[in-house]
Amino acid sequence: MKSLSIKDIALKANVSITTVSFIINGKAKEKSISEAVIKKVEKIIIESGYKPNQIARSLRTGNSNIIGLIVEDISNSFFSKVARLIEDKAYKKGYKIIYSSTENSVEKAKELINMFKSRKVDAYIISPVAGIEDDIKLLLNDNKPVILFDRNLPGVDTNYVGANHFTATYQSIESFIKEGKKNIALVTTDVSVQQIIERFDGYKQALTDFKLPYNENLVLKIPFGQAEEETISNIKELFKNNKIDAVLFATNYLAISGLKAVKQINKTIGKDLSVIAYDDHEAFELHTPLISAVQQPLEEIAETVIKLILNQLSSKTKLANQQVIIPAKLISRN
Amino acid sequence: MKSLSIKDIALKANVSITTVSFIINGKAKEKSISEAVIKKVEKIIIESGYKPNQIARSLRTGNSNIIGLIVEDISNSFFSKVARLIEDKAYKKGYKIIYSSTENSVEKAKELINMFKSRKVDAYIISPVAGIEDDIKLLLNDNKPVILFDRNLPGVDTNYVGANHFTATYQSIESFIKEGKKNIALVTTDVSVQQIIERFDGYKQALTDFKLPYNENLVLKIPFGQAEEETISNIKELFKNNKIDAVLFATNYLAISGLKAVKQINKTIGKDLSVIAYDDHEAFELHTPLISAVQQPLEEIAETVIKLILNQLSSKTKLANQQVIIPAKLISRN
DNA sequence: TTGATCTGATAAATCGTTTTATCAAAACCA
DNA sequence: TGGTTTTGATAAAACGATTTATCAGATCAA
């Protein structure tokens, strides 16, 4: 059951391999192949169901029509939704996406980059972890388009698409304060990636601007990858040990654990406790009461990422790097 | 910035390309290469950071160490979670996964299979749509391992891993009946894939066995891919036009839409309306009241899929096809 | 001593494309 | 007419690995 090669087609059509190749690649006109030959070869290709071997093609041309997408965790709904949108849009332009999760491990991220590199992907979309700056610089030296998204990597000069995490966080805290809240907690993760830091900074800045004291006991940093039960018990501790009347969760999975924690202790969300989650989730629209959330414009992020990539892939000259900051918006569900 | 090739390494080490290749592939002993040469070449490889070009390797060997995973929709949490588990497990065995979504389109599914085929993936994990039977048979003829999961394809003789949808549905309906419910609705989709049909059959069989009439007005089939607002309004209609005291949602996203619908009309889940969702979701654990759900054992499914694949990849002879049915369990959260 | 086996290594074919260089014949031009 | 350009097509090199066949010299067995 060997699959057909261009050679078989050439044989059947009684022309050379070169001719077939030109026809396949739409260079027939340019290379002045006669109409009759084009027709004949095309007919044979269709009838035989011949599909060019992409591996051989990639080996020769050095590109693959594949874009590599590296995210933190494909099972997180934020990433899976963005991935799906990116996939759709890329697909329409003839590009395929292959994705993989880093789980925030520097080592795995490096391995993935190497894997993609040895597969000759044409471009990279990366939600990076700190520590892979040099690997990314290598890609850039290699003239491969690299778009960072969701979080930037200070020290790497490339394209970035992300939401305005600082402002969105600031506004969330501001809204708590305007409700009259005074003891505002932040539940975040311990990974030091830029978007998490920005969220932390937005929190602190809002407190300062509105003349509330910053109390580090109200900031809980959950280790990334920690089992959920432990996270829930950490959060219960937080509430037990402190007087808290509002809480911002810096990621949607933390908010989910947090809501479970709140359920287990005797707190009711509403008057005595306000909650905002960062990154929306179906659960928040269904929760009783509804949970407010900071919503990143997924569609717009995906669209921008793809646009930047395609621009670069189609331009022969190196384009100026762009930093696209897209506003995130607080969806108040009170 | 050309990347290094095996030729460069051979040159530097002053040996032949063949020798380097043997060393890279661990055949040095077998091919009786001297210890000294092995050491020298390995040193150069490490120092130079040489990584073999996988494309060239694939072209020559015909395989890729890549497994293709085709799901219905990667942004559905059931699939993204299974995908992530499969990815982890495959990764540990040196295989990479590339995934893509079919969106239940026959055409897109065929295209994806072709894309994977022309990339020479070593094996296929597919959550199929009806209509791609012939394409799958071609893969099998080609001696590529194919594992169907989540839903089987009658008429294709290959491996299958999935939950016992019939029994789980039957038990769900049975539990409604034991609560004393008499007007039990089913909200499902219009796609005629096996797992959906099984769920439907389980529903009907349970009604029959417990001597309840089957009323087709109580079965709502939502077109796949329909906008959520419309789904919600369909479900509201269902409740408006019928006396319903229990409802089984055949997928988690339908359950989410359904819960939103219930929220909008004046129904309260509890005494007057019981709800079970098929496939669990974070939202159900947080909902007030808690929502019961049929939980598929994701970990076990992923584990079994990978095991079947690896067995086949490592065995030279064709193994007998296996149909692994894993029990799904009803998590009662009342 | 001679033929056989082992040791250590390599040259060259191969995988299936794309692309460059080349060529013969026809058409054009002055 | 003879030189130049166009037309229509091809042969062969290249991409970067793996693998088969081959080889010279050393060792061994009888």
Automatic annotation (TrEMBL), chains A, B:
One of its GO terms (molecular function) is DNA binding. Gene3D superfamilies: 3.40.50.2300, lambda repressor-like DNA-binding domains. It holds the Pfam family Peripla_BP_3. InterPro entries: HTH_LacI, LacI/GalR-like_sensor, Lambda_DNA-bd_dom_sf, Peripla_BP_I. Keywords: DNA-binding, Transcription, Transcription regulation. Residues 4-61 form the HTH lacI-type domain. The keyword Zinc does not apply. This is LacI family DNA-binding transcriptional regulator. The lineage of its organism: Bacteria, Pseudomonadati, Bacteroidota, Sphingobacteriia, Sphingobacteriales.
